[in-house]
Amino acid sequence: MRRRNRLIVGFLLILGSVVFATATYALRPELFPRLDDLPKLDKQKAKTLSPERRAELEHELFAELRWWDMSSRRYAGRPGRNAREARWREMAASEGFELAEIVLRVLDPSSGTIFSMRGPMRRLQSLAEKGDLGAMCLMVGLVNRASRTQDWQQYQADYSRWLVKGAELGHPECMDQLGGRLISGVDGFRRDVKEGLSYKRRAVSLGYVHGAGAMARYYYGKGLSDETNVRRIHCWSSVADTTFTVTMDREYDRAPIFLRELEQSAVIGDSLKRLAEELRQAEVSVQDCIDLGLEE
Q1: Burial letters for 101-139: b for 16+ Cβ neighbours within 10 Å, e otherwise?
Q2: Do residue 57 and residue 153 come from a single domain?
Q3: Digit-coded pLDDT (tens) for 74-131
Q4: Are 63 and 149 in the same domain?
Q5: What is the C-alpha separation between 12 and 272, in angstroms, rounded?
Q6: pTM to 2 decimals?
Q7: Same domain for 145 and 52?
Q8: Which domain holds residue 240?
Q9: N or C: which end of the chain has fewer CB within 10 A?
Q10: Which residues have C-beta within 8 Å of that of residue 160, sequence separation ≥ 6?
Q11: Which helix (H) or strand (E) holds 114?
């Protein structure tokens, strides 16, 4: 009888532990690595993925990472989150693109769930040590997303070091991320607007235009009294408008709203109001923005 009772007690303890762990996993997923519906990575295809194709996949991934659980121009509305996750899974399973697999081990776009980034960050550091520039740049992006639920400061020294390294080696995502930090003097970086704008410009010239909103914000902060600055705000806002539909950024990052505010402003002269009318009809490109210069 005693042996039977001990078996029952043992069984109940095991059952209780399983129930507790399951409940904790559901309520606090950030404490656990992703355990269910894991993304699949074709390791054989990963070995044969060409540098050119890898660069294309990196560009696509980084452009969407900041909107991972929101709407974007590519993935609009609530169904877009499911489509984005499906696309990232396809990158990993069909093309052997490991960075997409790493992202999905932390972020679940369809549900908005964030899992522990401890293991994935170790993997990214391992890849970075082997010279993987994309991994160097993904660290900061992944930490930014997971920081909603997890301590990001324990990773700050590592991702900052690799971010600088990746930017120095010319990866546009690292240059974009580092440029923004230098412009604002945040995240442990000393403020250096000139260097920050230079990095941003180089990233944009290489097609990484998803950071254009930061350029518009910077120039908006300089005021509306200068015609060239107004042109810069409009140009960078227009470029930013091509990359997303829903954003948490301030309204001045959106070109039509900015022009309407400019036209209605009581503190600017007639010349700037005429400029607003001109810009409303203008079509601008990234090169147009670059040609306006990067005056501090």
Answers
A1: bbbbbbbbbeeeebbbbbebbeebbebbeeebbbbbbbb
A2: yes
A3: 888 889 999 999 999 999 999 999 999 999 999 999 999 999 999 999 999 999 999 9
A4: yes
A5: 76
A6: 0.84
A7: yes
A8: 212-291
A9: N
A10: 140, 187, 188, 189
A11: strand 113-114
